[in-house]
Amino acid sequence: MHDFLRTFFDLGEILDVLPALLTEGLRNTLLIAALAIVFGVVAGVLLAVLLLSRRRLVRLPARIYVDVFRGLPAIVTVSLVGVGLPAAGLRPFGREPLGYAVLAIALISAAYSAEIFRSGIQAVPAGQLHAARSLGMPYLTAMRVVVVPQGVRNVLPALAGQFIIDVKESALVYLLGLGFGQRELYFIAQERQAATYNSSALVAAGLCYLLLTIPLTYAVNRLDRRMREGRRFTSAPAPVASVPAKAVV
């Protein structure tokens, strides 16, 4: 029991690594996740619109993208983007691994977000699009102004759940060998664990991830509950006022 506690809950190890986790690791984890989420949302909406196109040549590239990046393990995508692109001479971020880290997580997030947005948009009654088109709106304008905003409201809980996944998958970018000042939570903890052969640093990093994901999880559950209650309220039939019977003369 003593060895177990010393390996996973060594207070000295936790206190030694905690400043680096909070000042460097947490900041970079949030930076990677936030940038990936922004890209994923924007690209996901565009991909969802393409997936819903009636033209096969428009749908096919978007479908291939979504299927590929949803089908590949995240660790493979991170390796292909962060290691493969620079090795092939494609260096949009130069030699800075942080840019490739964000790109890898963002590509995965966009694929999953696209399916989330697609399902939300399809849940919008078709009459909304037909009504907008009947007013003379082009297809893309009708989608942007009328359909997409309603679809986004339908999928807010699922989309927030994807944000939690993005935060957790940011741990995979340790494969890219981030430099000092760019290390995220897992990279710092893994370096410490390799140097001391003690897993307390990983436990400390896990606690930092929980500080991010647990509040988000409860926020998602609360949002989902409020939206479901709102749908029940709006879908309830309006009460019919009773009309008093006329007196018989």
From TrEMBL:
Which keywords belong to this entry?
Answer: Amino-acid transport, Cell membrane, Membrane, Transmembrane, Transmembrane helix, Transport
Per UniProt, subcellular location reads as: Cell membrane
Q: Which InterPro entries match?
A: AA_ABC_transptr_permease_3TM, ArtM/GltK/GlnP/TcyL/YhdX-like, MetI-like, MetI-like_sf
Report the CDD domains cross-referenced here. Answer: TM_PBP2 (cd06261)
**Chain ranges of the ABC transmembrane type-1 domain:** 26-220
Enumerate the PROSITE patterns for this protein: ABC_TM1 (PS50928)
List membrane-spanning regions: 30-52, 64-85, 97-114, 201-221
Q: Where does it primarily localize?
A: membrane
Keyword Cell membrane in the entry? The reply is yes
Topology with respect to the bilayer: Multi-pass membrane protein
Source superkingdom: Bacteria
The family database entries (Pfam families) matched by this protein are listed as: BPD_transp_1
UniProt lists the family membership as follows: Belongs to the binding-protein-dependent transport system permease family. HisMQ subfamily.
Q: What is this protein called?
A: Amino acid ABC transporter permease
